[in-house]
Amino acid sequence: MFTIAAIAITVAHIFAVVRALKGPTVFDRVLAANTIGTAAIMLLAVVGFLTGRPEFLDIGITYGLLNLIGTLAVLKFWRHGDLAHDGEEEGAQS
Predict the structure, then answer these.
(1) Which residues fall within 8 angstroms of residue 23, CB to CB, at 6 or more apart?
(2) What angle is formed at CA 55 by the lines to CA 53 and CA 10, rounded to 5 degrees?
(3) How far, in whole angstroms, is CA 71 from its chain's centroid?
(4) What Rg, from alpha-carbon coordinates, does the chain have?
(5) Nearest by Cα to 71 from 41, 33, 17
(6) pLDDT at res. 92
(7) Which of 2-6, 26-30, 81-85, 86-90 has the lowest mean pLDDT?
(8) Count of Cβ atoms closer than 10 Å to residue 88 Cβ
(9) 64 vs 78: CA distance, rounded Å
(10) What is 36-69 written as a DSSP string?
(11) Which of 11, 39, 85, 89 is exposed most, by the fewest CB atoms within 10 A?
């Protein structure tokens, strides 16, 4: 059963890679990259269960946090043009 799950996750990976390559907008590509990361985490968990190595879950959790931070950084860069933007309005006076 877990082998079938690993195959299904691999197929989802392939679909996400196709979406990342064909995505008409940057947001489609970012969402596909996030999906690829999520599918990789699920594949790590399944392979860790199949091989009896629970430390793969720790690697998956770490990769999940990096995936989240990376996605937020790319979206912030796309919106503001730099990562140092502090959220204050450009024309606001104090």
Answers:
(1) 29, 31, 32
(2) 70
(3) 7
(4) 17
(5) 33
(6) 55
(7) 86-90
(8) 8
(9) 21
(10) HHHHHHHHHHHHHHHHT-THHHHHHHHHHHHHHH
(11) 89
CA distance 74 to 69: 9
Return the exposure string of 11-49: e unless at least 16 CB atoms fall within 10 Å of the residue's CB, then b: ebbeebeebbeeeeeeeebbbbbbbbbbbbbbbbbbebe
How many CB atoms lie under 10 A from the CB of residue 56? 19
Closest by Cα among 34, 32, 44, 54 to 2: 44
Top-confidence residue, 12 or 27: 12
